[in-house]
Specification:
By secondary structure, this protein is mainly alpha-helical. The protein has 17 helices and no strands.
């Protein structure tokens, strides 16, 4: 209990620190770029995220699961994962070109092709090869690789600010790409001795990773779609200024998603190494209910201070008036439980069954985002995201209730055991600080 809580707290602190850097950089970018340029920046960020999920082929999940179950083959699985990345990252260039060509946004395709491709390659390496750290339970290396990209992004952004006239949309995109490549190189340097070592295992492990991973990849693709469909619809059906506004406000609310994913990572790492399904389910429930208390407090603070905080942070061109920001916060909060539970459920249930579980909620978002956006503007896009997340969370909680006999309140309401664990953790931290 204490070890799990400490890993969770460490990851949350790391993710909060990384998110703080992300937020600082994002605030700078929002103030330096026009709303039209923000729409292009958001489009590139969102599409590379989706492409990295597709090209990953579920390798991250497979690496974690197989290494967790077969630790003696950890080195062989790591090498196989790297070989897959080297092959799959080559597909990033044509994917980037076709995506930029198909966009209705006003940009020069060839100017953005190189940074788009490098951004995708770096993001893909981190996504795939972090699976080895989760399988071995090396949460410290995972957190450091996450923090590395944020620090590189901050340094690059400060350099652009220091050079008069250097802060442009293209240069900001290059900095984003360089930050992901820097983190990928850091993780690669830690894994290089394993990757270079000799192996008697052929390509069978690579096929094993892909054959299981493809099923999980479908679910991850749906997870990312649930978070990006509304923005992509807005970017294709609304003016560029509206798309820029939606992207900026949504990113501001995603501090909840970022922390939720941090907790999901710890829950997933424990699930792949759990001795029983019951233990894995209990771990997931514990992390979910303690997290929701934090998320609810953060959401209330964001909504109550929005009128002052949003224009102060993002600039006077952004406003929290009306229902858009409230709807986006509600959508993000309602999606936090299923975001946390998703990776762990894929371990104790199966990737394909989780894919089927998610399908109705995401299809609802896809089906309603367009009509609601046309009828109600940005509020309609946010409301589509909200109802989709509510359906997804209810679906996940019902599966845990029916399949694993875990009451729904166990995922949402903290109990005395949690409070006792928090006190024990606080005492342990105080003891370490006194030394």
């Amino acid at each position: 209990m204490a070890k799990r809580a400490l890993d969770t707290l460490t990851t949350i602190i790391t993710r909060f620190g990384a998110k703080s850097i992300n937020l600082l950089v994002f605030l700078v970018v929002a103030r330096q770029l026009s709303l039209t340029e923000m729409a292009i920046y958001g489009f590139i960020f969102s599409t590379t995220l989706i492409y990295s999920t597709i090209l990953d082929l579920g390798t991250r999940n497979s690496l974690a699961v197989f290494i967790g179950k077969e630790p003696t083959l950890s080195a062989d699985y790591t090498r196989s994962g790297f070989t897959l990345w080297a092959a799959l990252s080559m597909l990033g260039v044509p994917a980037a070109y076709l995506t930029l060509r198909s966009s209705d946004l006003d940009m020069d395709v060839m100017d953005f092709l190189a940074p788009f491709s490098l951004l995708l390659a770096g993001m893909l390496y981190l996504r795939m090869m972090q699976g080895t750290t989760l399988g071995t339970g090396d949460i410290k290396l995972f957190n450091r690789s996450e923090l590395a990209s944020r620090l590189a992004l901050l340094i690059g952004t400060l350099v652009l600010l220091a050079i008069p006239g250097a802060f442009k949309l293209l240069s900001a995109t290059w900095v984003l790409a360089a930050s992901q490549m820097a983190a990928a190189l850091y993780l690669f340097s830690k894994q290089l001795p394993t990757i270079r070592s000799a192996s008697n295992v052929g390509s069978s492990l690579a096929w094993k990773l892909v054959s299981r991973g493809c099923l999980f990849m479908l679910s991850v693709l749906l997870m990312n779609a649930a978070k990006r469909v509304s923005f992509l619809v807005v970017s294709h059906t609304s003016a560029s200024d509206a798309a820029g506004t939606f992207f900026a406000l949504q990113r501001l609310t995603e501090i909840i998603t970022e922390v939720g994913m941090a907790i999901a990572v710890v829950a997933f790492s424990y699930s792949v190494r759990s001795s029983s399904t019951k233990e894995a389910v209990e771990n997931s429930a514990s992390m979910s209910r303690t997290s929701m208390l934090l998320f609810a407090a953060v959401s209330i603070a964001m909504v109550t201070t929005a009128d002052t905080a949003v224009p102060l942070l993002l600039g006077p061109q952004f406003s929290a008036e009306g229902w858009l920001f409230v709807l986006l916060v509600a959508a993000t909060l309602s999606g936090a439980p299923w975001t946390i539970l998703f990776p762990s459920l894929s371990v104790v249930l199966s990737p394909f069954r989780v894919f089927l579980l998610m399908l109705p909620g995401v299809l609802l978002n896809i089906a309603t985002a367009g009509p609601l956006t046309r009828a109600y503007g940005l509020n309609g896009a946010a409301f589509s995201m909200l109802i989709s997340n509510v359906v997804l969370t209810i679906s996940f909680l019902l599966v845990y209730r029916v399949v694993f006999d875990m009451p729904i309140h166990r995922f949402l309401v903290i109990n005395r055991e949690d409070l006792a664990g928090m006190r024990a953790l606080a005492e342990k931290l105080q003891s370490k600080l006194r030394r």
